[in-house]
Amino acid sequence: MSRYRIEVTRDALRALAKLDKPVRRRVQVAIDGLGENPRPSGVIALQGLRGAYRLRVGNYRVIYTVDDYRLVVLVVDLGHRREIYRDL
Prior knowledge:
Blueprint: E1 5-8, H1 10-18, H2 21-33, E2 44-45, E3 52-57, E4 60-67, E5 72-80
Parallel strand pairs: 1-5
Antiparallel strand pairs: 2-3, 3-4, 4-5
């Protein structure tokens, strides 16, 4: 049982659905792992977005926030590294 509940925004779900199947599996496993450890090694806090973190999964990035009070990880967006930061 994971300690944190994982919530995913509609935009992140759409982006996940567009990924190739093997990439989608790797990203989904990484997202599921955030329930156990929302700040694993290699995660970087994003500049300019208070409370937002970036998880690297190969060439893809998962942008998320952590609410320690409610024990919720909110996946805001995900995408290829060359495109993900344009919309933030």
